[in-house]
Amino acid sequence: MRLAILSQKETIYSTKRLKEAALALGHDVSVINYQKCYVNICANHATVHYEGKPAATYDAIIPRIGAKRTFYGTAIVRQFETMGVYSINSSLAITRSRDKLRAQQLLVMKGIDMPVTGFAPDAESIHDLIHLVGGTPLIIKLLEGTQGVGVLMAETPKAAESVAQALAGLKANIIIQEFIKESKGEDIRCFVVGNKVIAAMKRTAAVGEFRANVHRGGIAQTITITEKERSIAVKAAKIMGLKMAGVDILRSNRGPLVLEVNSSPGLEGIERATGIDIATRIIRYLEKAAKPIAANSRYQG
Ligand code: ADP
Question: Which residues line ligand 1 (CB under 6 A)?
């Protein structure tokens, strides 16, 4: 298989591991910095150019698009799709998952339970929103945030109001969310490939912190998840249209709640915590899924 990993740097752990695993399985693999690709949008001979020449023809790509690069990154993935190249995560699915609000609307509509969430264009509706999500303490999130940056807790209505006003002043898009106290600073990351959870880890927040992100000092360890958690994770990834996804779950008094579905889940924390060779599982999946089809038939608009 001729494979390209779309990634900003070859030295990123996940990129390195995917390349290593593909080579070990005998595939031809390149790492392409999508930020440096440019495209020729043309009906019968669409191309992606890289380093001054048309990129090679690939059977499959693995997009690892940075959160701040979604717009350009998904445009490049789309271009590969128009050329008939199989992408483990389609440009449409990545775009969907990157907009937290859009993702939440879609998941809830399809029956996935999530923390109660409110959204308003300005701070004027904050009183009502506080009420809607069950009062304080509550969580305020920047729609564009990742790795726990832009996730805040407001302990009182006054604090919620001031934070919402400050963020509205900065023209930031925010959501107000019910605080799941009983999750006790823990969340579960399920790594989904195809229609299976291939690994799961529990992340526990550092003392005095409610965010379990490893980047915020959280500790990761392997965990056995329940059948219900497993099927919710698979269903959430499927609804988003992602074949490779990191589904974050909080354990609540009313059962598992999906927090987020990530389209470029990191391999480092979960491979280290579980000892599972996730990179090889992803390449094995591609070996089966990346069947060649005609140009123009993968693009979903
Ligand atoms: P990011 O995409 O920036 O990681 P998340 O929405 O996943 O943002 O939140 C980061 C962390 O904060 C989660 O992993 C979880 O530990 C904690 N958290 C987020 N939302 C809630 C919530 N509603 N109730 C309790 N803890 C939460």
Answer: 115, 139, 141, 145-148, 151, 177-180, 183, 187, 205, 210-213, 248, 250, 259-260
